[in-house]
Amino acid sequence: MKAVNVGVIGFGTVGTGVVRLLIEQRELLARRLGADLVLAKVADLDLERPRTVAVPRELLTSRAVEILDDPGIDIVVELIGGLNTARDYILAAIERGKHVVTANKALLAHHGNDLLAAAAAKGVEIAFEAAVCGGIPIILALRQGLAANHIRELFGILNGTCNYILTQMSQQGISYAQALAEAQVAGYAEADPALDVEGTDTAHKLAILMSLSYGARLDLEAIAVEGISRLDPLDLQFAREFGYRLKLLAITRDDGHRVEARVHPTLIPREHIMSRVSGAMNAVYVTGDATGPILLYGQGAGMMPTASAVVSDILDLARNLMRGGAGRVPPLGCRTALESTRLIKPLNDLVTNYYFRFAALDRPGVLAQVSGILGNYGISIAAVTQKGREVACTVPIVMITHEAREADVRQALKMIDQLPVVSPPAIFYRIEDPHLHSARI
Amino acid sequence: MKAVNVGVIGFGTVGTGVVRLLIEQRELLARRLGADLVLAKVADLDLERPRTVAVPRELLTSRAVEILDDPGIDIVVELIGGLNTARDYILAAIERGKHVVTANKALLAHHGNDLLAAAAAKGVEIAFEAAVCGGIPIILALRQGLAANHIRELFGILNGTCNYILTQMSQQGISYAQALAEAQVAGYAEADPALDVEGTDTAHKLAILMSLSYGARLDLEAIAVEGISRLDPLDLQFAREFGYRLKLLAITRDDGHRVEARVHPTLIPREHIMSRVSGAMNAVYVTGDATGPILLYGQGAGMMPTASAVVSDILDLARNLMRGGAGRVPPLGCRTALESTRLIKPLNDLVTNYYFRFAALDRPGVLAQVSGILGNYGISIAAVTQKGREVACTVPIVMITHEAREADVRQALKMIDQLPVVSPPAIFYRIEDPHLHSARI
Taking CB atoms and an 8 Å limit, are A33 and B335 in contact across chains? Predict the structure, then answer.
């Protein structure tokens, strides 16, 4: 039987999962490939740490170069994370004519265009299913399954840490700090959670999904990003009272001329299937012009789900090695990538529905003053509630608006923050609710 | 620019969608393929019927053989449905060395093994993403995305007609006959709905999904099938009261030795994400040993969603034609298909939870007699309700059981039906509720 040889660089959590699958599912993988998928070598700086899989000592090395320089290795799997060293290893693998599998979304978002260009020049492939949503085959779905569609819009819950924290805050009414601490204990959040909770990781993944959706170059800078670390549980409760759930959504939408590209806490209707995505689960809700809406949902992280995606990529590359056909599917779905940046709609041009919360001093006429300013900026109110719950000597006024322009909203809120009867800053979140668009009261 | 030529046999609903996509998305498809995907010919017996797309007259023919015999055509798309003629056309296309795309689940379920063998012998491919769940890329997900997994279980809502009828019955409390009539008016059910409502269409699709899940030959006969046409809205209401929804589920599960293969109305917990799949939507909830549960959800039928799947297949085959690599992914996911039949668990061996409804005459001691018989067969009760609602001089007793063996259930219900204090037949449905398994009262 023929064999395809795989070298794994990075024997951490995901690396361990990949090694386990290559060993434990060897027979299944051979049945699928018609050849043996061989774990040829595993490199990691730390070879002593106990791991949940036994690897013959002679396959282990502390020097990645032993994989990169081994002419017998066909596919290199990069699982060390980070930017510089990972990039160097991938470029070295490409240079030596090896195909590459990576789960490194940060690297792809920052340097993906260069890496893909280098691979194309050398005639090798880079596969990255594991970079977005772990075990959910969303890359495959966008690049091949929905290939006959123009993608109209895509909503993603792409970061399990944030979704776990928001679920805990929403269901238990606890603070962000408490929920984060619980997530850290449960192993869903890192000691330094910034990359997750500030929305950066979600933006990395959205950059990849946007490229696949539109057949455009990766463009991380185009994405407006706001995280969840300043969320007040009060707003999750008010969102609930209006029939919404608050999620950290990655959103992109093509209006035919420009595309939206944004990551921020977003209110979605309770009835929307995305509001059922709770805990550490991930989901992508994508609308093609032919398919209509499609949801893919599952575990977006963790050892074995992510390893499943890595090994599906290894198998795919191995199939190309066995039968020819390398490069049959371009990495971003199209042979000619569009330049992305000219197409982006600036956040200030966004037109959507908003949730506002003002901390009003308990004096008569506050609502009139606030709504007067909103009216001056063409912002009309779909619903309002002024509850008796006093917070720091103020009473919250909560509003849901009809469609308004982001630039107008920012100007109006700046004016409102200057009113003596409110305690700044005004809080605002964006809403995705198709039923709100048309109605006006 | 190079070109790949496509002939479409069957210019009905899906055929029209495919023709529209090949024409309207021609530029997008060319960007993806790096070659032109050309609609070369369209065959249909009726060329006069008005359609939502304009096709140059010279591309139209009433004779399928003009496509089959055209040496310039690379890919033949079969969209006429039915068994015999469709099979003849596909075999003729294979014989002439053409690759085939079909949406014909009935044909695949009945004759798929022979067709796949004929294609393999001739070195051509048969693709069938559109045969299951319309625009949802479930074939791609099982065959490639989850390729590193052993599939542990799969639940499918695979027939939009049935799901629409059940949703209407559940939400409006109307009868099956009323809901069917509404579905026919809304265009979700055929004039003769038997293939849908008796579960046959769902079984066809499950046969395909099982083959892909296990890398086994297609085996329609292995599947136990029960439809929805005898459902009483009373049972949907009682299911709700116990916290369940009733869905027509396709179920397969691998216990490591044998696999379950069944299609029947099933109670699932209200909180399960599959219970949110309402109206004509389709969904597949599949658990791989590495990925854990994954959900794919979307429109399972209709002109454009189904056409999207057909065209994604055309593109995939065209990529193999352009770059080599035909046969790189075996049609059922594995190069060596397992024989399926020896692995099937007979329905009588099934161990699961049950919902029972007995029509009890309003006399003392009924519950004691019924539960006595159940106890004799080792069937223990998790919950019971005896409501005052009188139906035809009887009072319904509804029970939820702990895990029981199907053969025991059938025997016990046969005994209960002979009691003078109940009005036969006893109604029973199976429950899929992971939380019920362990608890006992």
Answer: yes
